[in-house]
Amino acid sequence: MSIAFFDSGIGGLTVLREAVRKLPDEDFIFFADTLHVPYGPKTKQQVTEYVCESAERIFGEKVKALVIACNTATSVAATELRRVYELPVIGMEPAVKPAVEMNGAGGRRVLVLATELTLSQAKYMELVSRVDDKRIVDSLPMPELVQYCERLNFDPAELGDYFRRKFEPFDLDAYGTIVLGCTHYPYYAPLLESVLPPHIRVIDGSAGTVRRLTAVLSERGVQGGGSGKVRFMNSADDPAYNEKLERAWELLHKTIG
Fold first, then answer.
1. In terms of pTM, does the model score above 0.70?
2. Which among 7, 126, 134, 162 could bridge 70 via Cys, Cβ 3.0 to 4.6 Å?
3. Residue 87: helix, strand or coil by DSSP?
4. Domain count, the chain
5. In the chain, how many H helices and how many E strands?
6. CATH number at residue 61
7. Distance in angstroms (rounded) separating the CA atoms of residues 256 and 249
8. Is 52 among the residues known to form the active site?
9. Which residues make beta-bridge pairs with 230?
């Protein structure tokens, strides 16, 4: 049986990459909701409906767990999926807690980059409220970055200009960590690191999600049985988009290793 990874588009491949590295004895399905990408600008109700429709198809496959490799989808629909399905559903959350722990003693601030919908949800606000007792966390929506990524646009000049415009209102010397709160964003981590001051660390939530997935598989006694095979699917049943996923998968390994 496979582990399913789900995202609105190609962003969740960054989480799948971490899982393939840490769980080489598993097989994987990656399902992209290409009919509705991107999720960030849409309403909570719309995204919940899209996620539930995709989950119905995913659970029609032979899977033993579902990873919602999308911060936006997790924030609006994870609870509903866990109510409906008995199989494990593992979600994402921005790596705010480790970022705060990194910076709490150093006196520098944390900047979370995510979609507008993620940043507007009670789940995100509760997370920040719970871990940010020193009030050092700021947020910055970057909705355009998902669209750049879905177009496989990694032009360093164009994206470098974009990042500099977005960061212009911020005193970056005051920040110690940037949190990538959307799974599309790690594609741009190397470029971000070249634009940001060298003291700023760039982190995301992939490692924590895969640790949780590993623990759940162990608890249920369903680890292993595969060979690292990855199969791509999409909600439009579009072979061309599956080819795009394969290109993005290859590009991801070339970009961030």
1. yes
2. 7
3. coil
4. 2
5. 11, 9
6. 3.40.50.1860
7. 11
8. no
9. 28
Say which amino acid occupies 256.
I
Q: Tell me the per-residue pLDDT of 130-184, one tens digit each, with 9 for 90 and over.
A: 999 889 999 999 989 999 999 999 999 999 999 999 999 999 999 999 999 999 9
Domain limits for position 16: 2-92+206-256
Question: Which tokens go with 153?
Answer: 């646009």
The residue from 70, 73, 89, 159 that is catalytic is 70
* pLDDT above 70: residue 104: no
Closest CA to 7 of 254, 241, 178, 222: 241
Q: Do 50 and 141 share a domain, yes or no?
A: no
Same domain? 81 vs 174? no
Residue with tokens 């095979």: 229
Is 149 an active-site residue?
Answer: no
**CB-CB contact of 33 with 6 (8 Å):** yes
Both 30 and 68 in a single domain?
yes
Residue 57 carries which side chain, given as an amino acid letter? Answer: R
Same domain for 125 and 172: yes
